[in-house]
Specification:
Layout lengths: L5 E2 L2 H10 L6 E3 L5 E5 L4 E4 L3 E5 L3 H10 L2 E6 L4 E8 L4 E5 L5 E5 L2 H13 L2 E5 L6 E6 L3 H15 L13 E6 L3 E8 L9 E5 L2 E8 L13 E7 L4 E7 L2 E6 L2 E5 L2
Antiparallel strand pairs: 1-7, 2-3, 3-4, 4-5, 5-9, 6-7, 6-10, 8-9, 10-11, 12-13, 12-19, 13-14, 14-15, 15-16, 16-17, 17-18, 18-19
Helix pairs in contact: 3-4
């Protein structure tokens, strides 16, 4: 929920002016369109249905995931908070992806559209702890409006903006994980019209994927039991294995065993 506008303390105002990231917002099209801003040690990336934030230190990623929350504070200028959105378990799924960045997937795309609108219209955003006045990163939003407009157009024309509302597949189900338990299901479509010939569902949220039977190439030994790699349109990778009566998927740092 967007909160009422309030003035930030003067000390914080000076801090924002001194530490906000000044860089150009850019848009990248293709099969996974995104708008992003990148500095030497931080990246904020907006995709069709999620945010990916790479803070300056891995310990920050661990802290965000441990708290399962992040405060997005939208700044009208260097001293006024125009609104805020509290990311938490009730509205989002927060997890570390690709061993470092934090991925925020919104349960309701209406919430994400609201966040994008705030990012497009304000001057800055402060990503901070949910329980303390501690900042993970502050980004300048100059130029974000144009990049977000292109992102919305690309997501709308490709149908990716509604990808989380795709019909869930009916196939093998795999369960497991570490701190965040996941249930993974996939179906390979033999009559696909393009390269996206598979559908993967993780905890009820569905995405398109392409199959890769030669994932390891000719220079690496193929692990015992390897069947196929499912390469998600969001750059996720699911490795499917079968060895005798045992079936499992490797995703990130965890293994998921067949459970249906």
């Amino acid at each position: 929920m967007i909160t009422l506008r309030r003035a930030l303390p003067m000390t914080l105002a000076f801090f924002l002016a001194a530490t906000a990231v000044h860089a150009d917002w850019k848009f990248s099209g293709g099969i996974a369109p995104n708008a992003f801003i990148q500095t030497n040690n931080m990246t904020l990336e907006l995709q069709c249905d999620r945010i990916v934030f790479a803070p300056s230190g891995y310990e920050d990623s661990q802290d965000i995931v441990a708290k399962q929350g992040l405060s997005l504070r939208f700044l009208k200028n260097g001293s006024t908070e125009a609104g805020a959105f509290q990311v938490g378990p009730t509205n989002s799924e927060v997890a570390i992806v690709n061993n470092y960045p934090v991925e925020i997937r919104f349960r309701d795309l209406g919430d994400y559209r609201l966040v994008l609108d705030q990012l497009a219209r304000n001057a800055g955003v402060n990503l901070s702890m949910v329980d303390k006045e501690v900042t993970y990163g502050i980004f300048d939003l100059k130029g974000s409006g144009a990049a977000i407009t292109k992102l919305k157009s690309a997501c709308s024309s490709s149908g990716l903006a509604d990808s989380t509302q795709m019909e869930a597949p009916e196939g093998l189900v795999y369960c497991g994980g570490g701190g965040i338990k996941r249930q993974i299901e996939y179906v390979i479509q033999s009559d696909a019209a393009d390269q996206w010939d598979a559908v993967v569902t993780v905890n009820g949220e569905t995405k398109r994927a392409m199959t890769a039977y030669s994932y390891f190439g000719s220079n690496q030994p193929v692990p015992k039991g390897f069947v196929v790699a499912l390469l998600g349109e969001d750059k996720s990778e699911f490795l499917v294995f079968k060895d005798g009566s045992r079936d499992w998927i490797e995703f990130g740092d965890y293994q998921y065993d067949k459970c249906n």
